[in-house]
Write the structure tokens for this entry.
Amino acid sequence: MMDRSKLRARDVVSTSVVGLRSRRGRTALTALGIAIGIASMVAVVGISSSSKAALIAQLDSLGTNLLRVEASSTGISIEPLPIEAEPMIRRVENVDAAAAVISTEFEVRRNDRDTNVVGINAMAASPELFETLRVDTTAGRPLDDGLRALPVVVLGDVAAIRLGITDLEGGPVIDVGGQDFVVVGILDELPLNPDISRKVLIGDQAAIELLGVEPNPTAIYVRVDPDLINETRPLLAPTAHPGRPAKVDVSRPSDLLEARAEVDQNLQNLLLALGGVALLVGGVGIANVMVISVLERRGEIGLRRALGATRGHIRSQFVLEAALLSGLGGVLGILLGSGITIGYARRQGWVVDLPPLALASGLGAALVIGMLAGFYPAAKAARLDPALAVSGGSN
Amino acid sequence: MSSAVLELRDVSKSYAGSPPIEVLKEIDLKISEGELVAIVGPSGSGKSTLLNMMGALDRPTSGEVLIDGTVVNGLRDPSLSGVRGRRLGFVFQQFHLLPGLSATENVATGLLYHGTRGRARKAAAREALERVGLGHRLDQKPGKLSGGERQRVAIARALLGDPAIVLADEPTGNLDSQTTAEIVELFLELNEQGSTIVMITHDQDLTRSMPRVVEILDGEILDGAAAEPDTDEDDAL
């Protein structure tokens, strides 16, 4: 028989919006706390995912199908691989290319200087190495069959810098093991094989004949069919050293690069946690402001009760006000965090990768935090005695 | 023509304390449809508590409150709120206008908790503002209105939804004498148009033009409890 109070859904929303709109300065400042929390979380996720995307793009271009077969270094003396290892591996199914290298102890120096460059050693390589590693030269050319037995050398990019040879003008010559080698090329960067960046590469026949290097390879680089890498990988050790496969290590250089992305995960979690703390502080700020707001707005609450608002209507008004306040902060934070990510990624030359899920959960987190922050003040508002509230609270 | 729209039967109200403070003592009061009643008493006489009882803003310690024929004592919050929203209109001393809303929007909140559509609320609000003589101030925010105009806005809001009775608590308490006279005049006009109005005041002067005056002192009604309009004109106390 009694007509109950009713509040239309859209009026629930507009009532809360009016509450926020009437106090713009406070609304903006309160939302800022949430915005900072969300912005930092979005930026952390955005930057790390952009960085990962850049790394994956790099891995894609370098290929994850390069394997490195080398003599196991667990023993006291490293037993090099058999000489036949390279041709045997090349015959394995799904192997696209293979190239042996022989590490040496020979240090190098420019022949117009007196001292050796520390940390830069000569390495003997079969001419297939450059194709197998898919590396180009920034100057000159790589070794080929015609240069295999000649006293010429190709410099890794780091080795070239350390030797102070950045181009081939004037025909630079370096000293390896007391003999002159003409520099014919300088290699591009080798992100997957930083060790080769620090070598000067001599043709394998030249190394054996001119420097007396043992012909046994110390490592073999193998390029295999990308789709069959898991099937092919176990075949390499027994093929390289049929007698003692346990003495052979097979590794994948791209794993190292991938591991770098994983190491960042810890840092990312830490930063996310910090963003979460900022978000919580923002939530506490909202709760605080809402409690004050309820005290200030006793008259309004009393009026609304007199106009027919139930306790539930008052409660939902304040919970929604807190959620909208926080949601506003969330939207601001997403814009800010996306801006930071885009700016940073552009500067690093990365493709921007902002996972939509991260953005959506940022907004969701803001709304949930706001609602939680609103519950207590809203309950306080709903419990106000209407008679006291309309009289302004002073009895 | 004289059916009771509001009736208090034996209503007492005391607040906890030692000893408990009895603010209202077994009040019997009947307001009939179409009446304009002034409830007058000095501060501390219990008149505000009486209004809270009549407005279902507070519950009596004992006794019954009937609003538009319904006993409201035992009602739970949703129904009680419904009674306040639909059967009663309130006018307060402090106006209680929302500063962010225009005059029309403020008046329209009178129908907010009726579930009325926004457009219909606004239309009714404009009509009510015309009735109280503010047809030219529809879009002003309260900050731009004078005290008298603010109280007219509040009165227009109380009229919305055709309440059975309008309760005004010291409606002229914040107004100068000129404006006070205008507001009293407005209440008389609205009463002539058919509104039932109860006005609480501490100002004896205001009651001169009122058809019925109920005097309250120390929680008891001294005079005017019976619902016989136009007979109690001896306001010389």
